[in-house]
Amino acid sequence: MTDSPEPTIDPRSALRELAMDLSIRWDAGNDGIWRAIDEELWEMTRNPCLVLSASSPERLEATVSGAAFRRTIATLASARHARDTAATWFQTRHGDGPLRHVAYFCMEYMLSESLPIYSGGLGNVAGDQLAAANDLGVPVTAVGLLWQHGYFRQEITAAGEQQALYPVNDTHHMPICPLYRPDGSIVRLPIHLPGVTLWIRAWEAKVGRNRLLLLDTNDPANPPQIRLITSELYGGDSESRIRQEIILGIGGWRLLREVGIVPDVLHLNEGHAAFAVLERARDHVREHKVPFEVALAATRAGNVFTTHTPVEAGFDRFAPELVAKYLRRYAEQELHLPLPALLALGRRHAEDVDEPFNMAWLATRCSGGVNAVSELHGDTSRRIFTDLFPRWPEAEVPVGHVTNGIHVPTWISRAARPLWEKALGADAWRAMPEPADVRGDADLSGTSDAELWAMRNQARGTLVEFARTHVARSIAIRGASIEQMEAARHLFDPQVLTLGFARRFATYKRPNLLLADPGRLLRILNDPERPVQLMIAGKAHPADRKGQAMVQEWAEFVRLPEARGRVAFLADYDMRVARHLVQGVDVWVNTPRRPWEASGTSGMKVLANGGLNLSQLDGWWAEAYAADVGWGIGDGQEHGPEWDAADAAQLYDLLESEVVPEFYARDGEGLPRAWLARIRTSMSRLTAHFSSDRTVREYLERYYLPAAVRVRADAARDPVLLSERLRKTEGLAANWHDIRFLGTSVRTTGGVHRVAVALCAGAVDPASLRVELYANPRDGAAPEIVPLQRQPGSRDMRELHYFADVPADRPADHYTARVVPALADTAVPLEAPQILWAR
Ligand SMILES: *Cc1c(COP(=O)(O)O)cnc(C)c1O
């Protein structure tokens, strides 16, 4: 829309609309309008809504009346309009496909500093996927909670202790609006908890064409206890957690219904929102007057569950009594499901009355697709989920993976943006090309080494400025001396190799691995020829004592006289601190204990900015690492804490012998050629692949589209047919123990094993069985699975005969016969997990 007509828009309402659209990434290229209104407030908060409401009418009037300002607003408004109306990748590619709408549920969203309803990684994944879905035009409505206090804010005391603070999130200055009904009244939904009916309020935030709907319980009509349910993210006990999850899952789905959204796909980003599958089925119960089981069978295929934890302890679990207290009435009166049947959905063993209710099991039992968030996490998750698929080989446990990615336009620096624009076209980098379109280094070949290096120097300089201001402010708050403040203004050196380390201070992330040998670290930092500087940030959960001790360990190290000027702890790690760090650092360090980093995303944020990764071969880095793009720690195996010392030694070795020398090896023009080659390779090979564009495309093509096809077919199916299918599945489960192997024989002739198997199926219909031979994988390939044919003839169910011929290139005893379900329109083993082995 370059030929847009003379601006006829009202600048004030245009400003407000711009302020409210979370898909706009305000950076140094376009944030002039907010600077013009209130530079200081903008710098401090980057919250356009606050800048607007805090400016006096006179000030606003004076600014808005300037012709240049009005032209800028008109340009921004028409660019926004153009983005919101242009044909999108989704429309072009899948507009005629089966998918109409996705509902995306998550406990937290990291979309903007002005909407602090996130803690860290999970919110980052959700926010960046939402942003990418908008860029690609995938129709998504996200659902979350509006946290009155969000996650805690961190201050570090003079003694180096972490203080957790909970300032109130002021809804008036956040880019959200109450959700209105067509008649102008606000949306309020009643929901029952034991003994009370409470009110849920609803809000909406715009992410371009898509919306994020947020729920809270802070309604004046609610008792104080209830109003606080949506107070603190990841605070409180398991009782407050189950209440939050009921609001999110059940309340969230009801809200969609209330506003007329009927999604085909429900994507549960982590198990917190899994109750939504119940409410989705309940809609079906009411509409079609069918039992819950039939309704679940009709809707299940449309649910997608993404697991994010690498350990079973990471799943949300609730005591059965708590579930009974909160959901008995709901189960009995609304789902028409006896409580034990509901509890069974969240248990490994339905009949074990002591077993807690596991939200991940609920999500898995009620979804048509389950995935982990990196290739390695896929392996780890299949191991954890074997519990639900007993006796299935790990490789066949139905958990796939979609590796996370980050939204490049959100994390790109001002310095790096022109390079990508030159490589990919003015706005093209906003939707990253499909990885297949990126050919090696070719895409950055238009940028010289000198330009690349200038970009890095500029970005590092900006970070150093930011770090100085940030540290000065934090220590001023706690009453630092004039000398300390003065020292903060001279922290760091914009020419020095800069390492960044920022993450949640959880034990498995080993945030103090770099401190394993403080003397050695100090020698690395203070090398007179080739110095190194280090920026640290991260919060420890207020209930995590060990995590807080590690924060303190860093705070004490920072105060050592020998560390002065070279190390700082940047308090209150959040989106703002993260953005500055990932844009400016030369090397991003990550040292989790493998395989505990399910994916990790912070290291992906440095890619487009020309930062390099020096990380444990875990999560996404295990997938991305190659010797020419960065450095890997660990041996690619899993070890306990006894291995920490070895990892630390390797980390120091790499710094001393590779990272530092390569950074400081300059040629006649002052350029570190080897370093720049590495940056170039990392940027061009990895950026697009680890972007949330690729992630969203993958979800769409591998999960959403097939889910939409299946759920449409199921929902349209005659309930009688669905009940029949269900009866078959249940009958199979009930009679499975009837099945017995009677014998196996092998005859080997002419290079072929002829395997014959005799089976008694008891009450089970042989048509719903598949008999197979299974052999373990060879050379890392997939397991070998050979279906057997049923011998026609005998109708005697007490003795069925099957046979198969397999090439005799491995011994016959490598093969084991097994029986698995074979039911039409049923995913095996996800929806029918039975299996019987001949031995
Ligand atoms: C990206 C980001 C995370 C996720 O980081 P990982 O350490 O990779 O899990 C957490 N917190 C913030 C503030 C982030 O920006």
Can I get a quick summary?
With 839 residues, the chain is of the alpha/beta class.
Question: Which tags fit this structure?
Answer:
839 residues; alpha/beta; Rossmann fold; 4 domains; ten-stranded mixed sheet; six-stranded parallel sheet; globular; binds pyridoxal-5'-phosphate; pyridoxal phosphate; glycogen phosphorylase activity
Q: How does this model look, in words?
A:
Residues 1-7 and 436-442 have low confidence and may be disordered. The chain is built from 28 helices and 28 strands. Strands 1, 2, 5, 6, 7, 8, 9, 10, 13 and 14 form a ten-stranded mixed sheet that branches. It has a six-stranded parallel sheet with strand order 17-16-15-18-19-20, with helices on both faces. A four-stranded antiparallel sheet has the order 21-22-26-25, with no helix packed on it. Helix 18 packs antiparallel against helix 22. The chain is globular and about 95 Å long. 40% of the residues lie in helices and 17% in strands. It has 839 residues and is an alpha/beta fold. It starts with 10 loop residues before the first helix and ends with a strand. The chain has four domains: 11-85, no CATH class; 96-404 and 699-716, Glycogen Phosphorylase B (Rossmann fold, 3-Layer(aba) Sandwich); 408-690, Rossmann fold, CATH 3.40.50.2000; 719-837, Immunoglobulin-like (Sandwich), CATH 2.60.40. The longest helix has 29 residues, at 449-477. Bound molecules: pyridoxal-5'-phosphate (PLP). Pyridoxal-5'-phosphate (PLP) binds at residues 120-121, 124, 503, 573-575, 578, 600-602, 605.
